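Give me structure tokens for this 437-residue protein.
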Amino acid sequence: MQNALFAIISFEGPDPYSQAGGLGVRVTGLAQSLADLGLETHVFFIGDPSLPAEEQRDDGRLILHRWAQWISRGCAGVYDAEAAKVSDFARSLPPYLLEHLVFPTVASGRRLVLLFEEWQTAETVSRLHELLVAAGIRDRVAISWNANHCYGFERINWGQLAGSASITTVSRHMRGIIRTCGVDARVIPNGIPREALEPVPKRTVSALRSAFAERPETGVFFKMARWEREKGWTQALEAVARLRDTERPLTLIARSGGPTGRGGELQREAEAHGLRAASFDSEPAFLHGLRDAVQAGAQVINLSFGVAPSLARTLYAASDGVLANSVSEPFGLVGLEAMAAGGIAYTGGTGEDYAVAGRNAVVLETLDPDEIVSRWNEMASSPNTMARLRRSARKTAEGYEWQVIVAFLIDVLRDMARRLEQSTEIVGGWRHHPQSA
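Here you go.
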């Protein structure tokens, strides 16, 4: 598909304003990887209203289109006034895409590939499909719609969506959920950037671990997730509480609250579990104050600031375990990032297709805190097992580097394009594009 032009349509995107979770990270990595391959790539997203409406990067290979800025000017973040932005996407984007991307690309003989993300774009997909059918060029444009989460599934007209686009998702777990909606999906996993696989400097790992030098029996766990029930916070805190007076206690370094940096409930919940908590509001304060907090007996270290990727990777590598133990995880990017850094991920066993119990991760089978306790005791008594898991984790993560995932994506799109060209069946007024399992 070297002659193809790609466009990604998503609420979240590369701007800090536009990132509220894993979707923004996904879109940024996917778009950059396509551009790095020399493919012209456009990203339409709810961008920062203070930045240009259109911006070219990488010698024009990557073009950012910040949409609905007239709405965003009065909003604090990407999902403020979400309904108005969804409506604006569906109303204004299809005719723009048709006029400025579809017609010129088709006229030039190039293949156009449109990649839509999440429920907010489902209606946009269907309206664009109608315009393409009316113009007689539906078979010249490849359209796929991807689900990273089941948020908003109840708002989607699944029959209409499946008739308008090929459906993809990020894990077998998510595919199972989509199948209950009456349609099928291809699984194309998320990726990680190449820099996520770079070795973590030993000096930074040693510096962090040195804070626990006087308590060598203590296990250090790290958890970073939104402050929501489904993210397994109760299970994590109860495990720390049950190990408090044992031979192998845990200290939990934790970042809660999502991208805003505010997770005020964590300290209160820790104290409700009888745990001593210490909070830090910046990275320098954390690095300089960790030793004192540990010596003072803190069992929960609350990071009430946005954790930079470099610090996250150090914590992944330095920790004895990374609790990526969500109740239900569509994909589990944190677990994969931890493995890339050589960390030992404790996953919840739902959408984390990359995690294989006993081979590269600890896969939790229950919501019982005692399972974390028992698995930690097993790991602590077998340093060789821990070292083997770390090596295998990094090797597994290499297979999820974005360039690998993009190559797989292009293969899937080629297959979808062949099916599109062969498909002539009309179902209920919608051109039907066969899905494969």
